[in-house]
């Protein structure tokens, strides 16, 4: 049994790296998914409402990607409720798309802070790592890492999909940062740079 593992693992790694390489250059559209909206506010802490921050960063990210010549589709551009199924359907109408969902986090332990990016596929993992690396280089805040997560919105989209958690609103320092337009602008720019890096 054990003798087969190294060969299999190597073959699998080669397959993974070649498919990521092929895919990485091929997306032409980015579907920006501002989390929550309308009746779904997301998390609320320190006077911040997640849905508003998600939309703000989404609109800023749209501007940065368009400036870099990327076609952008938004799942929402106003404070409206959009179901996860609708978000996936919007994305699934696009060919060669990358789906980027934007969120902010919260947890009962208020000491927890930082940025993290979730993925569900090997290509998604590659994009997630480039986005988080760019955020880590350009933003203040803890790098919590990238994580595999079988999130419904990621599962339902046929596009390569990642979900960015821009910070913990339940943490006082993260919340203070995310409350400023300057930080959200820098976050949007950093995400755009990470997305562009995953194309080449
Ligand atoms: Zn959220």
Can you characterise this structure?
This protein has helices at residues 4-24, 50-67, 84-92, 122-138, 152-156, 172-178, 181-197, and strands spanning 29-34, 44-45, 48-49, 71-74, 97-105, 115-119, 143-148, 160-168. It is of the alpha/beta class and 200 residues long. The protein has one domain (26-197): Zn-dependent exopeptidases (Aminopeptidase, 3-Layer(aba) Sandwich). A six-stranded mixed sheet has the order 4-1-5-8-6-7, sandwiched between helices. The protein has a two-stranded antiparallel sheet with strand order 2-3. A hairpin with a 2-residue loop joins strand 2 and strand 3 (48-49). Helix 1 (4-24) packs across helix 4 (122-138) and helix 2 (50-67) packs across helix 7 (181-197). 44% of the residues are buried. The structure holds zinc ion (ZN). Residues 35-36, 42, 50, 103 line the site of zinc ion.
Order of helices and strands: HEEEHEHEEHEHEHH
Q: Give me the count of strands.
A: 8
- Would you give the CATH topology? Aminopeptidase
| Range of helix content | 40-55%
Q: Identify low-pLDDT runs.
A: 1-22
Q: What summary fits the major beta sheet?
A: 6 strands, mixed
C-alpha geometry: globular
**What is the overall number of helices?**
7
Q: Look at the structure and name the CATH superfamily.
A: Zn-dependent exopeptidases
First-residue to last-residue Cα separation: 38 Å
- The overall pLDDT, averaged over residues, is 90
Q: Architecture, according to CATH?
A: 3-Layer(aba) Sandwich
Strand order of the largest sheet: 4-1-5-8-6-7
Rg of Cα set: 17 Å
The level 1 CATH classification is Alpha Beta
**Number of structurally distinct domains:** 1
> What's the oligomerization state?
single chain
């Amino acid at each position: 049994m054990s003798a087969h593992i190294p060969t299999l693992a190597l073959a699998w790694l080669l397959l993974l790296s070649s498919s990521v390489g092929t895919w990485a250059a091929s997306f032409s559209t980015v579907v920006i998914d501002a989390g929550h909206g309308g009746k779904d506010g997301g998390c609320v802490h320190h006077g911040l409402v997640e849905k508003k921050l998600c939309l703000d960063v989404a609109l800023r990210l749209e501007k940065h990607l368009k400036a870099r010549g990327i076609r952008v589709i938004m799942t929402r551009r106003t404070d409206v409720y959009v179901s996860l199924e609708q978000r996936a359907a919007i994305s699934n109408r696009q060919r060669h798309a990358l789906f980027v969902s934007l969120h902010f986090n919260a947890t009962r332990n208020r000491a927890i802070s930082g940025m993290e990016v979730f993925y569900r596929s090997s290509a998604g993992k590659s994009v997630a790592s480039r986005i988080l690396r760019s955020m880590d280089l350009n933003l203040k805040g803890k790098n919590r890492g990238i994580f595999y997560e079988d999130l419904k919105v990621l599962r339902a989209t046929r596009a390569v999909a990642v979900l960015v958690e821009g910070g913990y609103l339940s943490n006082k320092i993260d919340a203070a940062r995310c409350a400023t337009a300057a930080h959200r602008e820098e976050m949007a720019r950093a995400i755009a740079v990470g997305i562009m890096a995953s194309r080449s």
